[in-house]
Every structure is written in structure tokens, then in C-alpha cells.
Design brief:
By secondary structure, the chain is an all-alpha fold. The chain has three helices and no strands.
Length: about 70
Amino acid sequence: MEEIAGRINERERRAATYAHDQWLENGRDLLTAKAILGHGKFEQWCEWALSYTARTAQKLMRAAEVWVSVVR
């Protein structure tokens, strides 16, 4: 049973790491999109084009900004 639990836990750990990487990549892409769209158009674009709200997009962008400053 320990072996099975170990495999499950390892897969969960890898999935969580992968998800965090994806969130940061999405945050970077969202920062790029916001720069391209310009003032006042980003929130509308998020609501139209994405599967989550502009507020979630803002959180992802903030995470990407913070992470970049930590890595430097």
C-alpha cells in the first residue's frame, strides 16, 4: 500500500508543479496581450476570449510579475 500511495503522491506533486508552470506562462502571455490591446480593451477581451474572468487574468499576471522579480 505504501508503494501505491507513493506513486499517487508523486503524480499529484508533478501535476501541481506542471499547473504552476502553466499558470505562470499564461500570466506572461496575458501581460503581452494587455500590452497589445491597450487601455480599456483587456477586460472585454478576457471575458470574450478566455474561460475565466478578467480578475483571474489579473491574478495570473500579478503572479507572473512577482515570479519574474524573484528569479532575477
